[in-house]
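Session log. Operator J.P. requested a structure for one protein chain; no other inputs attached. Running the standard single-chain path with token output.
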Amino acid sequence: MKLKKYIFLVLLIIVAICLYAGAAWALLTDTEQGKWKLIGKFKPQVTFRTESAPPNNPIPIKAGDMITQRNLLMLEFKHNLGDVLSDLQVEYYLQGRAFYDGAWDYGPKVLSDDETRREYCFDNRDQINDLKWNLDLFMAYIDLTSGPSFTRIGRQVMAWGEMSTIRILDGTNPTDTSSLAVDLMERLVPLWMVRTNLAFDYVGPFDSISIQGYYIPGKIDNTSGEDMIDGSPIIPNVGRDLKKDLEDPMSLASFKQIMCQVEDDIDSDRYGINLGMMFKGLDLHLVYYRRYSDVPVPRVDVSSFKPITIDPANVDFNDIMGSALGGQKLQVVLDLDEVDVYGTSFNYHWDLIDTVIRGEVALCKDVPKMTPGNINEVIAAFAPKVTIKGMGSIDELIKLFPLGDVEKMTLPFTVGKIPKHDVWKYGIGFDKWMKIPFLNTEDFMLTFEYVGSKIVDYKDKTIMSPWQAPWDDDRDGQYDTVWEPEYSNTFVFITNTYYLSGNLTPQLVAMYEVKPKALVLIPSLEYDWKDFQFEVSYFFTESDGYEGTLGMLDSRDELTFSVTYNF
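Structure written below.
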């Protein structure tokens, strides 16, 4: 840990040197031929909660609390080697990243003080120390260009699709959702892949035709996302086990103490192909690719459980389930699986109304979904591996030690085969520049988008969302289940313009989810001065429920300040 701190100190010194050198634009630049250069950016950012968290929130953040103070350093080196062989151009790119979120060290006590945090979540300071900062080679690839062919080999981002907000076809690279403070440059997690493209102009009736493909070897890179710190203030408002819950030996909280989560070891290959066609201004793409499922499904691994013999005389009434298993824990695998995606996207500039029209449709085949489990299913699955001393079956033990409220609880994991559903996703967007009288003499950029989805073969209250509501309305001893809806319908509006010769840029992002009703507003203001960018933004949410995509955010009102220096 000390070594990491010293590395970060060295990086800060490098930043100081870069700030000095960058002022003269002499930061390791090939000024004679312009074939290589080293550039970068440094971005400190701080976010404050402007409204206290709602009742029963897992972490009681108060209005005015600093919930993140993230410092980002990115260095980029690009070198064009020119023609290495006849008609073969070679260029390579390296991007290093370092970040540190100081809120876990000097933020409010519910984040920085371990004794306070133990009131609301388990002791996870080791996890915090591992994830609150990082130093890595974020992207690294080599480009090979020869005639109509282009190949990129290395750690990279590959984006398909037309939507600017909610992804439909763009599912190759996983999204980093570990913090709302993650910079847009880091939001898509790079993967090690080989990507190639062939493009030809004026083929038959088409202005151009392109064929693009990629391959990600699972044995080399099976990254499926970024880890999130337990108790992070940006996680959904899931039910949190407090001390009083743990003191009840027959509560769901106690039941979860005999379980341990295990990451899935999926390492299958991922790949895709994209056929593009340009015809009289219409840019059309036909796509197929294979990815991993986005949301892991918790599944109890019965095969990993070793057969045991339970002696009822030695069961500890303060830890009934734990002592009955003799210290052995149930392994819950965060199951991922391959998902095949078939889709199409297009964009077209409609000259008559001077508007760009964009659209996407995707069919995601066999997406794993989490269905509710219960204790009786768990008992039935493990019964063949359990012997009761002096009794014939595990049912006899339950007669002596009734399960109580646990028996009627909905468990947040499945036992046995995971059900799969096909999911349709679709969206359409419009972009237009236009003048708005009395507001600005410059144009406003207006973007309207609709994004929806439908689960095939849906049945009411059969698919659980990966979070729970932070309340217990029916008083059954657990936080209420949130069910995934059959349809999702979200409308997006984005507008921005500029003042002061392009240096001042106001923007508004509005997102509205139809059912349940959920509204997100993100106004922001950015000012550019020399090599600096100053930005302030406000994140406002209001929701009627926890279903859907935006509803999980509930009331999450935050104010963010950032300064970016580009050198």
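Operator note: The chain has a mean pLDDT of 85.
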